[in-house]
Every structure is written in C-alpha cells, then in structure tokens.
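[Q] Does anyone have a clean structure-token version of this?
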Amino acid sequence: MFKAVYGREDEECKQALIAVLNLILDRKDNPITGIIYKNPFNVRENETQKESILDIKAETEQGEVLDLEIHLLYDADFIHRNVYYHGGMITQALESGEEYVKIKKTISIFIVDFCLFPQTDQYASKFLFKEERENFVLTELVELHYLELPKVNPGRKKTAGELTKLERYLEYLRCAGDASCREYLEDLRSQGGKEIAMTEKLLRKATADEIVREQAIARDKFRLQQHCREVQFKKGLAQAFEDGQKEGKEEGQKELVRNLAASGMERQQIARMTKLSLETVEAWLEG
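[A] Here you go.
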C-alpha cells in the first residue's frame, strides 16, 4: 500500500511524496520541490557483496539521495541492515571516477510500527556523524531518521487537535484501513494538513487497482517460491534417505524420521516421503 501510494511514476504520487518528505525532514527553509525516482536496487559490485532493496528511493533537485521505508516487524538484524543499505546508497550515488568532493548527501527515513529505542520516549530520532565528547558534527552528508509509530500518541490520550502536523500524519498512516479507528481517522483527516489529504486521495485510487494487482503478484510469487522450496526439500530428503538405505545406516534413518517429526510433519507424510511403512515410523518415534 505504501509503495502504491508514494512509489509510482505519477505526478500526483510525486507531489504527495514531496509533501511528506518536507514534513518529516522539517524542510521549511529549504523545501524539496522536485524528485526523480531511482532504481530501488543497490546492485552489488562483486560476488561477495549483498544486494539491497529499498522501499522508495528518490533524488531531490538539490542532488540529495533519499530512501523512505516502512517496517511493521522488528528483527535482530534491523539496524545492521539499515547501516548496510545506507552504505550502498552512498557508494551508488558517486559515479565511477568522480572526485569524492562530489559525493551526494544521503538520507534514510525509517517509519517503524514498533518501539526501537527503549532509552527514549521521543518518537522521532535523527542520527548524524558527531564527535563523541563535544558533540560537533563531522559531516551533514549522512542522515538517518527513525519514526516510531507506537510512541506518537500512546493510548491515544491526545485528541487529533492536540497533535502536531507530523504526529497527525503518522497517526493517520498507522490507522488507515483500520475499521476500529473510524472516528479517530475522521478527526485526523479534518484536522490534518495537505499530506493526509493527498495521501487519502491516492490511497482511495490505489485501493481500486494498484494494491490489488500488487497483492496478487506478491501472492503468486510467494506460492511459487514455497512450491519450489518444498520440491527441493523433498528431493534432498529423499536422496539423503536413499543414501542411508544403501549404506545400511538405520540409526541415521531413525534420526531423520525424528527430525521430521520434531519439525511438525505428520507421521503419514513422513512415511510417504521416506518410503517406510507407517508402522515402522511409529515404532521408531515411540521407541
């Protein structure tokens, strides 16, 4: 939904994205007025590197490279991946042979629906390269912004009218599509600025076509991937079991059966896959 609203090569989408970026980055004095969508893939330079995929990657008319992402679930590699992806943006933004003085400013924005920094109650955090003791900035060429949605209005103790413009937008983003938030959403829409209005218009338009299409593609890809993995998994297990049979390693076969059962596989399925009788499988598991 996020990419369908802000990531399409469409003037309305661009203007909505520009409005949101100016709001998040508080760009009143030096606002972004134009953007160009960039390839969201940071392509690896050699076989040992990882490729990275960004949600929305764009370049401003000032030459800044931006990455805007939304994440619903936390995982242990989250911060490490952020650093790696941002590093890819920096290197990809400098053309081969260009002088380092021409390096472009890179800005990553992560909107997350979980609490990432327990050491602070503030929902918006901005990270720069700074000197540790005296706190002066090394360079303004690198910025990482984190917006933690659960901290914006915990318990919804504030009304929409009591929230700042950015807080209303973030609350709208979190609640959009949630039927239980209908009244709160109406308040956010009525009190909110152009960012919510533009997003709402694109959301309604995208819901009818783009989101449905993207969801269908995603489901088909997922099913195909799952099927391929299952086929390869079964082939590997069957080959391993046949090798064990040829070598007469009954203990190895028993261990394989126990591992399959421990993974949650039904006994009948284990019997079919390993070409053993159900009685043998049950005897090995109960023995």
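[Q] Thanks! Anything notable?
[A] Confidence is low (pLDDT under 50) at residues 41-53.
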